Amino acid sequence: MPKGQAENEAKVTESVGGGSETVLIIEDEEQVGKLAVSLLERYGYNVLTEADGEHGLDQYTKNKKAIDLVLLDLTMPRMSGKMVFEKILEINPDVKVIICSGQSDEDIREGILSHAQDFLKKPYRVKDLAKTVRKVLDS
C-alpha cells in the first residue's frame, strides 16, 4: 500500500472510530463484500459475511443474539434483500440494518427503506461506510 494511502486510511480510522460489535454483511458482489469486510475488520469489528439472501438469513437466524448490525444489499440471487429484510424484521423487529443499493434512495424509500436505520448508495466511499456503521450502532 502506498504511504499516502496508508496515512489517509489511518486518519479516517482515527476520525471515525471503530468498535468491537458484530456486523453481518449480506452482499453478492464479491469485490464489494471483500472491501467491506476488510474495512470493518480494520476498524475492529467482528464480521460475518454471506453472498446471497438465503445464506444471509440462515446466518442471521443462527447468530441473531450476537449480530449487532446487518449490512444488506437489495439485489441478490436466491432471495432478494427486501425479502431477507422482511424476514429478519419478523425475527427481530429491533434489528439495526443498513441498506446498500445501486438504486437511489428515492427509488426505494416507499418500500423497506423506511424501516431501515440508514441507506448507502453503491458504490460507497470507505469513509461513508465507516461513519454510517458507527452512527447506526450508536443509535
Automatic annotation (TrEMBL):
Organism (species): marine sediment metagenome
Protein name as catalogued: Response regulatory domain-containing protein
A UniProt-annotated Pfam family: Response_reg
Keyword Phosphoprotein listed: yes
Keywords of this entry: Phosphoprotein
Span of domain Response regulatory: 22-137
InterPro entries named among the record's database cross-references: Bact_response_regulator, CheY-like_superfamily, Sig_transdc_resp-reg_receiver
GO BP term, pick one: phosphorelay signal transduction system
